[in-house]
Amino acid sequence: MEIIRPDINLDFIGKRRIVLIFSAVLILIGLFSLVLKGGPNFGIDFSGGTLIQLQFAESTNAADIKEALKDLDIGTFTVQQFGEEANEFLVRAQKTSSELKGFSQRTLELLETHYGAGKVDIRRAEMVGPQVGKDLRKKGFWAICYAMIGILIYVTWRFELRFAVGAILALIHDILITLGAFSLTNREIDLPVIAAFLAIVGYSLNDTIIVYDRIRENMGKYNKEPFPSIINHSINETLSRTLLTSGTTMIVILALFIFGGGVINNFAFALLIGILIGTYSSIFIASPLLIVWEEYVGKRRKAKVATARSA
């Protein structure tokens, strides 16, 4: 099945400078937001603390819940609405200790005193120590780094070093933009989101490898053509496959994002942004980076030749 003819000739490579500038601006906006907010907004998995998800039989608000829990000895805590339901809230506290083992029961007692028996349901209660959160944050970071190193080795072995560098830079581009989107929308990064980031890495790499494989094939078929022209041919020939695969995947992710509920909303958001940006980078970033590499290597060769002649 094809939605775009393989012999179409859109000039993707001709727009590479504009696109690279656009991507750089997106990344800088995200990084500026991260610096402004003091880093990513880590969830309880990584920052440590206590969390309880509450569901009320009737609509209420955060101020009333705070008033009901004012006698709860947990230090500073926040209450925020959860998902799109007007009667679901999250209570978060940074304090964790052995004294908080009865935290959920004490919370329920105070809320039932205020709202009435049977009017409140505790959907989940989580407690993560600060050291555990720090370890999980470190492991999540290294999981992404190890994935990148493995990809660099594999693509270098399967293709060439320039292809591997292009793929890695495109993946870093995808992760940075997705991370920036989380910062701009003030969404939390937890373990499911790290899993989504790893899924983005795999998905984006798969799209990039398809294009790279066609470039390698066309380098033998059109060896008399300029390298940018070969890359443009390859992107156009795989465009239909790229859009079909990404389009069908996006339909599923959109369904998860809209109907999946608050628990997996951040996970679905990460996949939604990541797949969108991953598709964009496979077309506009990964392949044009090969040309940037080629131009850089070409300039170095000319400089070496000029130096050798002058000597």
Could you list some keywords that capture this structure?
single chain; 311 residues; alpha+beta; Multidrug efflux transporter AcrB transmembrane fold; Alpha-Beta Plaits; 2 domains; 4 strands
Q: What does this entry show, briefly?
A:
The chain contains ten helices and four strands, in the order ααβαββαβαααααα.
CATH superfamily of the largest domain: Multidrug efflux transporter AcrB transmembrane domain
Mean pLDDT: 80
CATH fold topology of the largest domain:
Multidrug efflux transporter AcrB transmembrane fold
Shape: elongated
Relative strand content: 5-15%
Radius of gyration: 25 Å
Q: What's the number of domains? A: 2
Please outline the major beta sheet: 4 strands, antiparallel
- So what's the CATH class of the largest domain? Mainly Alpha
Give me the count of strands.
4
Q: How would you write the strand order of the largest sheet? A: 2-3-1-4
In sequence order, what are the helices and strands, one letter per element? HHEHEEHEHHHHHH
Total helix count?
10
Quickly give the structural class.
alpha+beta
Uncertain regions spanning at least 5 consecutive residues: none
Q: Give the second-level CATH assignment, the architecture of the largest domain.
A: Up-down Bundle
Helix content: 55-70%
* C-alpha termini separation: 60 Å
